Amino acid sequence: MKFLYGITFVLLLAGCNNPAKEAPVGTYYDLKSYVEQQIGQLDRQKPAVVKQVGFGSQRERQTVKDINWSRELDLFLQADINKQAYQASYQKTRPDSLTYEYRLKPGEHLTVRYLRVQVDPASRKPRRIDATLNTKNSLYESERKVWLETRGGTVKRYHMEGFQQLAWLEKKQFVVDGEVQ
Questions:
Q1: Pairing relation of β-strands 172-180 and 90-93?
Q2: CB of 33 closer than 8 Å to CB of 77
Q3: CA-CA distance, 100 to 29, in Å (whole number)?
Q4: Rounded mean pLDDT, 22-29
Q5: In 3-state terms, what secondary structure has residue 133?
Q6: Beta carbons within 8 Å of 48's beta carbon, 6+ residues apart
Q7: Is 34 exposed, middle or buried (0-12, 13-18, 19+ CB in 10 A)?
Q8: Measuring CA to CA, which residue among 140, 115, 143 is closest to residue 130?
Q9: What distance lies between CA 144 and its chain's CA centroid?
């Protein structure tokens, strides 16, 4: 009899499900895989990049070839929302068949506030990616707006701008703009 109760208990436990754990993976566009693939490709090709970097009102423009692409495109990796824990955190819209748009739902407190991925009709690879990332707590606040454009599925231009501010210091504006040659 104890054996029967044990089997019944195990079957009941097996029947209980946790919807958060079973949420379908791939609900959002898989930005991480795309950006990681681009990082690998750019690391191998080592293209020259016409890059403009600015902090505050100062700007510097130069052509560089030695770039750490993992660090350079890190904000795009941070913009990936295709995580199981985020399944219910974003409002999804499809303005057209080539555009995926995600906005953080009211009351949610995640870093990625907005993500838009426009794909190429033939390759289904991103043609343009736009994202807004915000972080705010009692000591620190930052906002980063980023976009990336491709040609033939390969990164051709990227842009990052925003600010960082510690509670007791001035806001520091920054901009990075790169055009892959």
A1: unpaired
A2: no
A3: 7
A4: 60
A5: strand
A6: 63, 64, 65, 180, 181
A7: buried
A8: 115
A9: 11
DSSP 84: G
What pLDDT digit, counting tens, does each position of 121-135 carry? 998 899 999 999 999
Average pLDDT, the chain: 87
Tokens matching residue 106:
């009211």
The domain limits of the chain are 46-180
Confidence of residue 83 (pLDDT cuts 50, 70, 90): confident
What the block records as the tokens of 26 is: 């791939």
Phi, psi of 89 (to 5 degrees): -90, -10
Distance CA 117, CA 150 (A): 11
Give 120's contacts (C-beta < 8 A, 6+ positions apart): 98, 126, 127, 150, 153
- Identify the burial level of 130 via C-beta atoms within 10 angstroms of its C-beta, where 0-12 means exposed, 13-18 middle and 19 or more buried: middle
